[in-house]
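Structure (tokenized):
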């Protein structure tokens, strides 16, 4: 885990970072040498890691089997607990979700195999800068447009409404498809519970957003050991597009969530899904459930892999506060097509602005 103390660095390694197409390959060739200065994201932004481990013990845990219970009393209580987690934290750990542990382990194994492929073999999946490309493999966030880079390689795949996935390593596509289908089912049930918690009909958000033909993105992030983890980040503070994000990892910590102005280390319990609220759910709930800021920190010993699935609306749907909520309150957000918001968010990630703030009504309106 990264230190809470800022440490001054020596003269950084002189490297042409525009030539780095894989931070994994660079880290392996660079060994224990100092990292390039334009990976100093913590120093550049004056960011000291403020870790509150004592608060981490109270991270909400939601039992999915209770939420999906046929017993009305059990279900109602679970909906209440879900509402509390969403309103107070914006994320939670989901247990008893029904996705086999063996499937999750196989998916993580294949994900490592993909990142272990030679650079030449992954070139066909190279990121062309188009956010809606079916398959994108690259490094950092958007290397050509960045002044500061991030210690991460990624594979991003659009897995719904049309399923795409790399054809290698063997078996990866099949395992990813099964996981994608199961996550979609879990997401659907959670959104139904969230709808109920807002006082809406169970299928209100599902139907109004076109969820059943909605966009799903699977991102496989690899964070190699970093010689100076107190200077760099795997990913900077950001919120996610969509309704819900689901994360699993390979047992190496690195996820931090912003809670009450402190960064909290998230150490998932075994076989759980870490779930966070996305921007579109904050908009639909008219601000009741906030899209949580989170980031990826680094270590100097172990490679971390995280696999993230983002479930959102259909690209052509206008998404804004649920009309039923506006009968008694003013809208906090403007409605916007999900596709347009997605593009807005991608640009905002490069300028340290939140896309939600761009569609938020001013206090004077």
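Design, position by position:
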């Amino acid at each position: 885990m990264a230190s809470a103390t800022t440490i001054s660095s020596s003269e950084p390694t002189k490297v042409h970072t525009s030539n780095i197409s894989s931070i994994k390959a660079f880290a392996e060739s660079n060994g224990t040498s100092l990292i390039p200065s334009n990976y100093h994201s913590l120093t550049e932004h004056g960011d000291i890691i403020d870790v509150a481990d004592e608060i981490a013990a109270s991270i909400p845990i939601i039992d999915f089997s209770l939420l999906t219970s046929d017993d009305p009393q059990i279900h109602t209580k679970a909906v209440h607990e879900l509402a509390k987690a969403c309103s107070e934290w914006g994320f939670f750990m989901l247990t008893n979700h029904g996705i086999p542990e063996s499937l999750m382990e196989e998916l993580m194994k294949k994900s490592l195999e993909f990142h272990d492929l030679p650079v030449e073999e992954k070139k066909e999946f190279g990121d062309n800068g188009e956010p809606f490309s079916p398959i994108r493999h690259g490094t950092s966030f958007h290397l050509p447009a960045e002044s500061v880079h991030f210690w991460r390689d990624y594979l991003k795949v659009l897995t719904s409404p049309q399923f795409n996935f790399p054809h290698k390593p063997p078996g990866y596509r099949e395992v990813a498809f099964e996981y994608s289908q199961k996550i979609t089912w879990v997401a659907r049930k959670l959104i139904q519970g969230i709808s109920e918690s807002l006082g809406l009909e169970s299928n209100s958000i599902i139907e109004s957003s076109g969820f059943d033909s909605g966009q799903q993105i699977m991102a496989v992030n690899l964070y190699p050991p970093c010689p100076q983890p107190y200077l760099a980040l795997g990913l900077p503070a950001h919120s996610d597009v969509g309704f819900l994000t689901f994360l699993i990892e390979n047992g190496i910590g690195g996820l931090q969530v912003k809670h009450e102005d402190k960064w909290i280390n998230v150490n998932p319990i075994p076989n759980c899904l870490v779930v966070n609220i996305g921007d579109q759910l904050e908009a639909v709930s008219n601000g009741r459930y906030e899209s949580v800021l989170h980031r990826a920190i680094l270590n100097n010993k172990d490679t971390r892999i995280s696999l993230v699935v983002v479930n959102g609306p259909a690209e052509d749907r206008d998404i804004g506060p649920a009309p039923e909520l506006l009968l008694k309150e003013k809208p906090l957000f403007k409605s916007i097509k999900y596709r347009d918001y997605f593009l807005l968010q991608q640009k905002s990630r490069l300028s340290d602005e939140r896309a939600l703030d761009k569609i938020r009504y001013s206090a004077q309106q």
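Reviewer-requested clarification: The chain has a mean pLDDT of 90. The domain at 41-358 is CATH 2.60.120.330 (Jelly Rolls).
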